[in-house]
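Narrative of activities, Objective 1.

The group set out to show that a structural description can be obtained from nothing but a protein's sequence at a throughput compatible with the screening campaign. Below is one input-output pair from the validation batch, recorded exactly as produced.
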Amino acid sequence: MKRLFIVSAVLLLFCSSTFQPSFKIAKLKYQGGGDWYANKTSLPNLIAFCNKNVGLNLAPEESVVEAGSVDLFQYPLVHMTGHGNVVFSSTEVQNLRNYLIGGGFLHIDDNYGMDKFIRPELKKIFPECDLIELPFSHDIYHQKYNFNNGLPKVHEHDGKTPKGYGILYKGRLVVFYSYECDLGNGWEDKQVYNDSDEVRTKALQMGANIVCYALTTY
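Output recorded for this entry:
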């Protein structure tokens, strides 16, 4: 079963374990014209931070995987970002659903402009589930680092409070959606946005929480 690869990988790669084999995080390539390839330095920096500060052994470069590809099932965690349109075909919808209910985890980071497009696409994948705002007490905010007030704010656009949304399938969080936060921008090389060290550190710490949560909750 497709779930087996994820279960075995995660059981071996528990964040506090002393034995941690290398694996890759993947960035999701999608259709519709949105810039799925945005934030080019984000994941390598997050990976390096996790390896140094959380004790993981992640491969230093992320993979790229298409929404409809069987290769999706090689990755316990897939990251998705962009500013614009997102379209999932019926085949991609089914593939993403199978991946997520089989043990996979999807982190979506709205890079400002994705929100109105991603919400209806998520409803295609999980028509029976609502995208809900997670309480600050949720475990994703309390892994290696504690975020008692939820997501950190990286960049200001419309003066809105950052929100962390999720889809729970049979009680398990399968999708985490960071909105009005620009979390991935905070992972970028410092010269890209010239964010302060404090802002970048908070963003990377929250990113590390997401990685740990995805690997340790089943």
